[in-house]
Structure formats: C-alpha cells, structure tokens
Design brief:
Blueprint lengths: L1 H34 L4 H6 L10 H33 L6 H33 L15 H33 L1
C-alpha cells in the first residue's frame, strides 16, 4: 500500500512534466518548420555550398521531414501523460496501464524508424538544390538507434506482461 502512495505522489509531477514537454516540443517543431534555416550539419551532408539557398517550399519540406520523429515523441509524451494520470488515480495494474505502456514502446520504435527514414530523405531533398550530378543520398545508423529500439522492445514486452498480469488479477478478483 505504501508503494501505491509513492506511485500516486510521483505520478502528478511526472504527468505535468510530460504535458509541458509535449507543449514545448510541439512549439519547437512548429517554429522550426516555419522559421529555422537548415542546420550546418544537414547543409554539409547535402553538399550545399555557402551560396546555395533553398526556396521556402523546399526548406519547409525539409523541416517537415525532420519533424516526423518529433511527432512520434509528442505521441509518446501524450501516452506517458495518460499513464501518469492513471497512476495518480491509483490505477497501477490494469489493462489500461498496459495499453499505455505498449503505446509508448510502439511510439518509441516508430520514432527510431522515422528518424532512420527522415534524415536521408531530408539530405536528398536539400541536395536537389545542387547543380545536376551533385545530389546526395546519405544513409547511416548509430548505436543510439539500437539502444532506442531495445528500450522500445522492453516497454512493449513489459506492456504485454502487465496486460496478462492484469487479466489474471481480474480473474482472481472474480473468485474472491
């Protein structure tokens, strides 16, 4: 019972933090797409010279591609906020909590996949501003990607396990 009290006490500030992070990330994504110039590392990867500027529609399209992984993170933060709300209400072992954990894991996995696809697409789209024959397609996978995939898989597995435990707990409540 003491652990449930601790869970409820921690859940509220974590829920607020997830909501604030979701709002901040949403604003950053929107402002970044609308106003930001291409980062230097993206310009270098696309082989854009100092004098090469992208037209507004292409710059916005490159920014929108880069925002795709952030959209997955916004989804994950929303699922986290909903999970913390359930915890704050005293609901710790339920199918609804398990579903949120599964959604968080799936969202993290989607974010990694979107990052792996969006970055090369951004580079290719930006490099189309180069003269003919100087377009670039760059693919890469980092160690952090593997870590995120494993973390996502862990959350999905814990979600499945929690769903089964909640089902068994509900069956046992029926016997008492």
């Amino acid at each position: 019972m003491e652990d449930l009290k601790k869970l409820r006490r921690w859940a509220v500030p974590l829920q607020v933090g997830a909501i604030l992070a979701m709002v901040a990330l949403s604003l950053a994504v929107g402002l970044g797409i609308a106003f930001a110039d291409l980062p230097d590392d993206l310009r270098r990867a696309a082989g854009l010279g100092d004098g090469v500027q992208l037209d507004t529609s292409r710059r916005v399209a490159v920014g929108a591609l880069g925002a795709l992984p952030a959209l997955a993170m916004i989804y994950v933060l929303g699922q986290m906020a909903a999970l913390f709300a359930l915890y704050a209400a005293g609901e710790a072992l339920s199918v609804r909590c398990a579903r949120r954990l599964l959604n968080i894991g799936a969202g993290l996995f989607a974010g990694v996949v979107l990052e792996l696809v969006a970055r090369p697409a951004q580079i290719l789209l930006a490099s189309l501003a180069n003269p003919p024959g100087q377009q670039v397609l760059s693919l890469g996978v980092e160690g952090a990607d593997l870590g995120q995939i494993l973390a996502a898989g862990l959350l999905v597995t814990v979600g499945w396990t929690m769903r089964e435990a909640a089902r068994i707990a509900e069956e046992n409540r029926g016997f008492v």
